[in-house]
Amino acid sequence: MQGIRRVRYLPEGELRLTPENRAAFRSRESIEEAARRGTILESMCLLCDCATMQLTVEMPEGMRGIIPRAEAGFVPPGLGSGEVKDIAVITRVGKPVQYRILSIREDGRGERVAVCSRRAAQEACWQNAVSRLLPGEIIPARITHLEPFGAFCDIGCGLVSLLTVDRISVSRISHPADRFRQGERIRAVVSSIEDNGRIYLSHRELLGTWEENTALFSAGQTVSGIIRSVETYGVFVELAPNLAGLAESTDGAIPGHTCSVYIKSILPERMKVKLVLIDVGEEAGAAPFRYFIDPDEVPRLTRWRYSPEGCRKVVESVFEEGTNGNEQRKVNS
Fold first, then answer.
1. Domain membership flag for residue 288
2. 267 and 141 together in one domain
3. CATH number for the domain harbouring residue 46
4. Cβ contact 63:114 at 8 Å
5. Rounded to whole angstroms, how far apart are CA atoms 280 and 278?
6. Residue 260 is part of which domain span?
7. Could you tell me the pTM of the whole model?
8. Distance between alpha carbon 286 and the CA centroid of its chain, in Å?
9. Region of residue 166 (left: phi > 0; alpha: psi -120 to 50; beta: else)
10. Are the C-beta atoms of residues 76 and 135 closer than 8 Å to each other?
11. Residue 239 domain-assigned?
12. Dihedral angle at the C-alpha atoms of 166, 252, 289, 150, nearest 10 degrees?
């Protein structure tokens, strides 16, 4: 499949240190040139005047940058009243923001003031990229904050999409913090696009199939893992984000803790990994992960099958253009 060609917009936090952005902030003259070109810039938000909800952003010496309340953000059509909430404005303080410069003027004290618009940057990103996304498309994202039900991700210029906790990995986790850290850069798959334009993401399809993950292990090995749940019939241990095995019930197993396990057997026809719990360690942090799909080679998925061929249980994701969503299927044939 050929690459999907679109104007590239980065999540907030990824533009500020690029050579192009740094060059724009070298002088007042370079800032004025960026304003003329309509270039999207990024700098730190320094403060918010809570009386007017006006933001101040970092600018070269001798110039002040402001984002008026009306220019603080963009709400895509169909999503709410169209006005960004005050809390969304206040929480930009101390963080990088992207914007276009609308005008440069002098105030009453002769100071140069750049009037900036985060809304204009986000609207351009929406029109030229986000609104054109297709189910199954692989995109870069940045974790903005974590909630028990999922991870909110910046998919360009501060526009946010939700990655629900059940779509983060095949191995079940109790909280997105088991997998991600705030500010972390990830790849994601467009899972569904609702009629109102709201976009949901997935992540599990990028973490490898059952066969790709089990190829990293062999029966007879003792390896490290993370205890994910303790049930009456056994202990589920995560060997990789998309691979878990079952050990017999034992005292001392604590969910969320690291452990060492012996691999008794790997059974493709049943999609099972049988383990023996050897030892329990400390509480685990965010578990590392690797990607098995390169978006430069495969920019969009249409179908992804997790389960191995010949397994009675079929676990797959189907992404179909022309529909508003992604269908997850688990079939016992």
1. no
2. no
3. 2.40.50.140
4. yes
5. 7
6. 210-283
7. 0.88
8. 15
9. alpha
10. no
11. yes
12. 30
